[in-house]
Each structure stands twice: as C-alpha cells, then as structure tokens.
C-alpha cells in the first residue's frame, strides 16, 4: 500500500504512468544464491578503487591503497599483487608518509604497459609498469598530472601517446581544468579557475573523418554563480577542447587551450520547472558514426531524486558549433568553431576573444527533449551502459545503475515506462560501491567495494525460470530459451525483449502444457494453517483461487501467503496460487486441503491386532 | 524495506533524522470499527461543500449543489434541507440554468441569519436566510461578491457588518482581489489585476488595542512573474488591507484600497535550496495577544512534497511595518505603515505612491526560520489546527491534515521529528475530501465528500488500549487514563503528551501487573503453523521470543506473524510476541506449542465401548 502511496506522492507530479509502483521496482532480485558471483577480497581496506581491463578475459587491474593488483577470475592462481611507490620513501623526508593511494590507472601501448599514478597526500607520483614484470617501475613526480588529495576524483584519458588529465594543479585546489601531457603537440593547460568544479568524466568525440576535428569532452559540475534565490547550488557542464590544439602564441594564451568552450548540460522537465542540476556519473556508448554516439548521464537534485538523460555526440557538437556566446553581444563571434591544424597561427584578435568568451548560450538538451529517459527516487550513484545484439538483429541497450546500498539495477532502455529487469546483489552486506567496470566483450561487470571486487556474469539466466514463458517474460536481452533452459542469448534462442510476449514460445514450438505441482494436506478440524506461494516476479499480480472464491495474497517479505484461520469442512478443496503478468496467467502452486476425520485418527493397523489380543484374553 | 528505502531517498536529503520511516507513518489507524463516526449522506452529488457551524452543538450548515442543509448529528430528526434560489428561475431566460451551487456561506448577526451565495455559472446571487425559517429568502444579484464559476474558490470574511470577498469581478477572470461590501465605510475594491491569482484564505489580524489598526490578511498564490529558468511557476503571498480604509480621493485611488500591501510568504530550507512555493491551505490559531496568533500554512512543490510552515501574526505585521518596498529605490518610502482613521485625508503624493508601490522586499519567514515545522511526501490537501489544555496546564497543539485519499492525519505539534498520533479513516471508500470544519468547543471535526458529511469525535480514545500504559504511549492530548479506561482528557486523567512516558501510570498508582493471555496449542507432528500477534502501534518494534531464540516479525498488512514451517519436538515451548516502543517493552501474546503424540490420536472414550461391543459378539 505504502509503495503505491509514496510513488504517488513523489512521481505523480512527474508522469501519471510512472506513478505505477512497479516501474521503480526490479522484476526480480538476484543474490549469490541465484547466480554465480566470483569474488576477490582485497588486502586491507581501500578509500578508492581504480579499475581497468586486464590482458586476458575475466581479468582486471585494481588500484587501491598502496597496492596494484592483477586479478584473474578465471585462473585465480595467475592473480598477483604488488605494492607501489614504496621506493619513494628513500628520497623523502622521514616525516612524509610513503603509503600511496592509486588515483590514476590506464592500460597503454596496446596493453603492454600499465600507467599508474598515486599520492600520499603530499606529492603525487606516476610510473609506467610493464605488464610483464608488475611492480618494478621508475616513478616520477606528477604535479599537475595526478591529484594531491586521495579524495579527489580526477578523471583522465590516455589516447595514443597523449594523456589528458583534470587534476587540481595546486594542493589548495581551485586549479581544476583540463591539461594535456606528452605527445608531439606539447603540454597545454586551462587557465586557473576560481569557481569550485568537480570533474565527473572525460570522453573523446570522434574519431571523425578528419582527425584534426576530434575533440575531447570533459563533463563536470560547477558551483552555480547565479545568485538567484531559487537557483540550484550546482550546475552541470561540458567542456570541449580540440585534440589538435597546440595553444596560443607567446603573448596570448601561451601554452593554454585556444579551443576551450563550455556549454550547460540540461536535464529536466521544463514545463513543470523540475530540473536535475547535479551530474553524478557519465558513460558513453560509441557508435560507428561518431555523431550517433550516445552520452548517458546520471543526475540528481536537492530533493535526492535521480534522472538519466541521454545525449548524442552530434547534439553536443551542434551546440558548440552553432550557439551564440552567453556573455557576448551580437554580431556573431568571429571565433572559428572548427579545430585548426596549428592554433599558433590564429590571428591575435581571435585568440583574445577565445580568452574572454568561452561559455555557450544554448543548452545541450537530451535526445527526448520533453523529459529524461528515466526518473527515480532511488539513490543511484554510478551508470554503465552496454548493448546486446538481439536475435531479431535489433540492438538492445541495457543500463547498469549502482545503488548506495551496494546493489546494481539492470535496466532495459525502452520507450515508455522504466523496466528494471533485475536487482543484482553482489555483496553479502550493505556496502558502498566505489567503482564499476564493464567488460562488454565477455559480458562481465566488475563492482568494487573498499574490501572486495566482485565479478557479475551478465548472462546468468537460469534463475528466470524453468520454462520458455518464464525466460521470455524476463525480457532480458542477455538471455533466451534454448529449448531446455533459459541461457545466454544466441541465434538459436527464443526471446521477445520488446514485449515479453510468451506466445513466441508456442510459435516456436518450445512450450509444453504446464501443470503446477499439487500437494495434499490433511488438517485437524479447526486447525490454523498457512499456504505459501513463491514470488517469481515483482511485477506480477498474485491471487488465491479456492472454493470460497478468490483472495489476494497476504504479501510478506518475498512470500505470498494465505491464512486459514480455522479449518472447517466448507474450506476443503483446491487452493491454487495464480500469477498474472503482462496478460500471461498461470498457476504456480496447488494445494488440496482436507479435514482429518476424527476416525482417521484411529490407526487401524495398530487397532486390529490390539482388539484380537484383548478378546482372546476375555475368551479365556 | 521499501518504506525505509523511499524515505531514505526522498528525505535523507532534508534531514537525516526524518529519514526514519515512522515519523511519516501514523502510530495507529482508526476506522469506523475503532471509533464512532456519525454520518450524514447528502442528496445527490456535489461539486463542492461549504461548511459552517450550526446553532446547536454537533450541528452544521452544509452548502452544496442546489441545496442548503442544516445537519444535526445529535438529533437527526432536527436536520432539514432546503433548495436555494429556485425562485430565480422565474426572472431568467428559460435557457439559463436555475441550478445554483452554493459558493459562500456565513453565519451572521450572532447566528440568527445565514448569508448564502451561489452561482449557476452565469450570474451569482446571494441572500440572507433567517435561521428560523430556512429557505425563504429574497435573493439579489451578487456580481463582484460571489464567483461566477462553480469551480472558483473565493474565500470571504464576514466581520460585524462588513463582508470581505475575493471573487473574480469579471466572468472572464483576471479580476481577483479583495473587496469590501456593506458597512458604514463603503464599498472598496482592489484594482483589476492581470496576473493569475488564486486566493487560499482570509484572516483578521487583530483585534488590536486600537481597532483602527486592525488589518485583513489575504493568503494567495500568484503566477510567478520571475522568468528565471529555475523560478517556480507559483509564488505564495500575503496581502494586507486596513479594516479602517475608506479608499482614496476622487482623483487617486477612488473607492480603492489605500493600505493594500503584499509580501512573499516563504517556506523552505534555504541552505539546501529546497523551496515550497505553492500555498495549499491555511488555518489560524488566534491567541489572547494578537501578535502571538499563529498562521499554519500547508505548501507543496513541483516535486509533490508537502511542508507545513508556522508564522506569527506579529512576524507578518513586522514585515509590513518595516520592510523596504521591492521595486522602489531609497530613500525610505513616505507611505505611512500605520492605518489611518480616514484615508480620504491622505496627501496626494502618498496616495500616488500607494498606487505605484505595494510589494515588500523582505520575505515573511516561519517561526523556526531554519526549516519548516514538518516535511512529508504525503499528499496533504487541507490543514486545521486545534489546541487542548493539558492537565499540566500546558496547551498542546494538534494539526489535522487531510489526505487525497479521504483520510485525515492527527499530528502533534512538538519540537523535533513529526509525530503522527493517528490516521482517521472516516470514509468507507477512497474519496476526495472537499472541506473540513473544526468545532473546537465540542472537539468535533466535520469532513465532507461529494456525497457525505462525517463527524469525527476527536476525543474517542478507547482504541488506544485497555491499559494506562497504552493510553499514555498514544500521546494524544485529547485522551487520558481515568483508572479504568482511556477516555477524554480531564483534570483527573493520567497522560504524558510530551514524552509518552508510561512510568506516570505507576507514579499515579494507576497500573497493575499485566499478564498477556496465553494459549496452548497442540500441533500434529511436522505440522505447518502460523502464530499471530496484533500490531498495536505502527511505531513499535515487534519480535518473537521462543525456545530457538529471537525472531523479528514477518510483517503482513497489519499482522505480525511467525511461520512454523514444520513442527518438531525441539520447537515445543513458549512463544511470546514482545512489543517495544519508546523504551517501553511488554509481551502482547503468548503461545505454548506442543506436539500431539500419535497415541493421543486414539480417542479412548470412543475406543472402550467399541471393544466391548466387539467382544460380546465374539463371545456369542
């Protein structure tokens, strides 16, 4: 009841349809009892965890407190762990801590090396670790590359031989920006920035036909300078720089970006004045054509609500290419919106303008401008996105959203109401998820807490049920019915992700008349009794059909019950628990209740010889 | 589980403490099974209901569609119903509807008359109905007094011989304002207003030592003219006029208010940028000293959240007396903030200023500036406030909040977390509450739906329990323990509203050692069984103490269950359901479970004669 209530309260204002509770509850909950989780427990406890894919399937690198680990979930014997930057202690004041936390982790030169940075809170350092001999590395000071503070999240990108970082330049902060290191085009930075910013993610916009036009996008939140009483405290923005940028001339923008532009990332329902202002996490789904690449962004509000908005790279690019500048009067600016081969040749007046005007007037709006893809009251923290090729040659997109309690929601991207396929519970107790890594080639997901890394097999389908109908109704693009079980989807498996229409089973001749198991129970007269029925789907409706008519379930923590207060002759008969979901109805369990007649109480097998014996005595 | 979840999501952002679910759930739910509701079913269905107190206790006047009813709940035979304004049909075009809906209802001249207005959607009319002969009345056209539209809510005040109304002046709307009719000081109006406004309530600020200084406050919401992208669509305001106002001179403000000022009514949590912008309902608690009178205001937001903010008349007055004007440069305005005996004598420049500047710069802030009195995700619609004198000579304030589903929450005003004493369910099915009337002298509340008016006795206490401790823990200021039962609070009853500390019972020697009833149950071996325990408080914790240890309840719709999957010898013994709330713990029910030995199955009383009979036959 309260479920309905609450959503009614929170969401009816957003969208009448969404007010239906089940759009915000998972259809099924999967714990380690239901699907295989492979675990790796980390030595010690870690303030953060950096994750990158390893060189083999089902293997990853994990950076944490003092340690860099290579974890192989297939052959755990292969796993190893090395302490990082210990050697730094030698050339340091004895007072300084030589316990470094890893803050940046990249696989480079085609996986042959791992690039690792860390900090002891005083001085950041980095080094290149050859994958062959983990551990040995000549570390060097990394001021301006990696963060000073262990707490600071500083997303970075390593593309070819170029490293793009977003760490604070100064130990005091207020120096967040985007900086390029290495490569032939030299080191370039943004100018110091006085407003508080927190970078959420980086991505490349491309690759494009002309590489000169490739851009780097940085997604960040910034303290809102708007002093309006109703203005939100944070606003979300995208910053672009051209990958080809070589900086300005000696006098103007020397060694600073000449292509840096920012635009506001909008997510909300304008007509209702509901805005999601604060960006939490971003994941990018790259497409063959870069303009179709999609940015999935998770936002929150002061009310604690969450929303996911989806943007195309094309739409973001369009704003940077066409929008007027926010604080600049017409006529249209002379800044070039195209990236240039060599920015040092740009005329001074252009450079001067690039120095003064950077913010776009137009907002970047989501694909479905009318409203976010998804709105929820749940405290989601991370977002990852994967695609699965359906048998019908349709690509299905699945979102993975981490919850603050340590759970993960597997959400189907579809038009209309949100459909949460499942809630995965990788951890045994409530914990905080620090990071998520998706290995799309193997369809594995890695989630890390301060003490554990757990591997989720996104294709574990058995739990959906033992029948084609169960498997199809689950609507999980990773799964299909192979004739005998619900298993990883392939060309030969039956599935209907779009509608979950179980009829496809019959069409494919994959179904068989189902009869629910039936239990007979004899109860003492006037006995109190309880009937149980399993909850196979959180989206289904359950009811008991019995001689007295029809009764809804008494729902209690994952059980559908029916209480028999006092057994009586008129209550004898069949009790079946009927489940219905999406027009699909079937009986899950059946009971036949009988009343023990008092006579039945007499055990004749005992009685007969007893009487004979007794009589023989009497006859004597 | 989900309860915790949702509140965690919605409210943890507001206040960590409030995230505890029970602050938003009633301690107990009372239906007609639990307390006496007296009902009056209205003839036909009504779009609205106007309620005023009748001349006797437990009697009210109800205005609806075509009908004015006098309802006497004590002696229903006294109730009568008359159709209003039927006679109007004669002097109307035959095309016009002569079905009038009552829109304004007041008891005047000391209760001897009822002032009634209604509309047929074309022309509003009013008339004075002598209480002695209900029905007979000479109606007159009421343009500018009562609304044209049946939908329009137009609060009004009838003070002494003056009527203050807020109806639209024109059938097209956009004429909302405050208008005075009758009385010696003549008719005065506000000037036509182009922005959309909806009046929520009216109240008098006074009576003051000097009657000239009495003011009328009008509480309303207005379309926000602020075009800021983040600005809310509605803002809440208070409008003041001096009761003594006689309007301006021929040239300036002729027959218009010369004392009309407006100020913004603020409710929210500024430091979190959480604002409740839209006023829904208001009730005023008048105090001996007018400055201490309190305004209880119910607000909502685009997110569907609700908040109750409390203001003192003194605070509102202070803003109107001292604030600068919003759109006016310094130096300080020359407008007089005091009401004047005869506004017609005001100098022209003053009148001119009063014409141009009306809006205050300062916001009116609630008593506890830091945050609203109460924040909830529940869809409250109406608010009424009552006070009860406690035995300890402390006045306790109780709020009544209607829910959209037709329920009413009884809420205790206290510092710290919200405490919902009870949820009252006056209606048999989900319905929309149209209006609420509190009869504080008799402690009765009247709630009306389109088809019913129900009387709630706010002092029905029996359901709280059969023990002093139950009664005290309920913390209901209307109730107390008289030594034998929980009943209407008096000088002689035991209660502790502030802490609900049951120890007062012992101190007063009103308690007796309590032993929970104990049931013995013999179960067949391996039988399945279920134990039940009643839920006496939604705020308490329940657990089962048994031979195997301690188990939390399996909570299912108002029941606390314990399932015995399979009876076994080791499960024999005592099972007690222990309830704890506010440090108070006790056993509610006890069961003793035994296993029937098969032998007991043989009924010896049947057996003996059977054997004898058998043997006699054999002996033959």
TrEMBL record, chains A, B:
Belongs to the semaphorin family. One of its GO terms (biological process) is axon guidance. The keyword Glycoprotein applies. PROSITE patterns: SEMA (PS51004). One of its GO terms (molecular function) is semaphorin receptor binding. The keyword Signal applies. This is Sema domain-containing protein. Residues 27-458 form the Sema domain. It is found in: Membrane.
């Amino acid at each position: 009841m309260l479920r309905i209530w609450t959503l009614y309260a929170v969401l009816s204002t957003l969208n009448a349809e969404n007010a239906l509770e089940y759009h915000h509850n998972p259809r099924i909950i999967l714990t380690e009892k239901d699907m295989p989780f492979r675990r790796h427990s980390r030595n010690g406890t870690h303030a953060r965890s950096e994750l990158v894919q390893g060189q083999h399937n089902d293997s990853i690198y994990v950076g944490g407190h003092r340690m860099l680990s290579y974890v192989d979930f297939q052959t755990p014997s292969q796993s190893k762990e090395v302490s990082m930057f210990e050697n730094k202690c030698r050339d340091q004041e004895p007072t300084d801590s030589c316990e470094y936390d890893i803050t940046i982790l990249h696989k480079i030169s085609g996986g042959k090396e791992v690039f690792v940075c860390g900090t002891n809170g005083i001085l950041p350092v980095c080094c290149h670790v050859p994958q062959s001999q983990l551990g040995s590395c000549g570390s060097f000071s990394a001021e301006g590359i990696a963060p000073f503070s262990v707490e600071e999240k500083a997303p970075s990108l390593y593309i070819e031989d170029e490293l793009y970082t977003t760490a604070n330049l100064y130990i005091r902060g207020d120096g967040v920006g985007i900086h390029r290191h290495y490569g032939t085009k030299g080191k370039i930075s943004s100018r110091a920035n006085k407003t508080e910013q927190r970078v959420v993610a980086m991505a490349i916009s491309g690759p494009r036909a002309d590489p000169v036009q490739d851009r780097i996008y940085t997604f960040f939140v910034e303290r809102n300078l708007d002093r309006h009483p109703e203005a939100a405290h944070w606003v979300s923005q995208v910053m672009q720089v051209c990958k080809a940028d070589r900086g300005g001339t000696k006098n103007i923008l020397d060694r600073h970006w000449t292509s840096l532009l920012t635009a506001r990332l909008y997510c909300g329902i304008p007509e209702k004045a509901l805005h999601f202002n604060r960006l939490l996490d971003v994941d990018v789904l790259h497409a063959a054509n870069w303009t179709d690449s999609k940015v999935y962004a998770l936002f929150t509000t002061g009310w604690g609500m969450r929303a996911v908005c989806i943007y195309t790279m094309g739409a973001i690019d369009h704003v940077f290419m066409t929008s007027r500048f926010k604080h600049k009067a017409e006529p249209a600016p002379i800044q070039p919106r195209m990236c240039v081969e060599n920015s040092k040749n740009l005329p001074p007046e252009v450079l001067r303008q690039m120095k003064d005007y950077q913010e776009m007037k137009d907002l970047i709006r989501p694909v479905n401008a009318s409203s976010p893809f998804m709105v929820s009251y749940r405290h989601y923290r991370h977002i990852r996105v994967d695609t699965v090729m359906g048998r019908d040659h349709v690509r299905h997109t699945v979102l993975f959203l981490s919850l603050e309690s340590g759970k993960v929601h597997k959400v189907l991207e579809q038009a209309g109401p949100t459909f949460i396929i499942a809630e995965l519970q990788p951890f045994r107790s409530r914990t905080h998820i620090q990071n998520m890594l998706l290995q799309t080639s193997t369809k594995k997901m890695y989630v890390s807490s301060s003490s554990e890394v757990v591997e989720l097999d996104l294709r574990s389908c058995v739990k959906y049920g033992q029948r084609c109908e169960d498997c199809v109704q689950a609507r999980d693009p990773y799964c299909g019915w192979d004739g005998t079980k619900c298993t990883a989807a392939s060309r030969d498996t039956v599935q209907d992700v779009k509608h979950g229409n179980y009829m496809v089973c019959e069409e494919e001749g994959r179904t068989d008349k189902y009869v629910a198991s039936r239990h007979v129970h004899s109860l003492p007269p006037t006995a109190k009794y309880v009937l149980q029925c399993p909850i196979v789907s959180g989206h289904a409706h359950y009811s008991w059909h019995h001689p007295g008519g029809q009764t809804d379930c008494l729902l209690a923590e994952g059980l559908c019950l029916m209480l028999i207060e006092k057994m009586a002759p008129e209550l004898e008969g069949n009790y079946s628990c009927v489940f219905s979901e999406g027009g699909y109805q079937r009986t899950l369990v059946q009971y036949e209740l009988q009343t023990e007649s008092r006579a039945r109480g007499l055990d004749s097998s005992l009685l007969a010889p007893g009487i004979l014996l007794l009589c023989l005595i009497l006859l004597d």
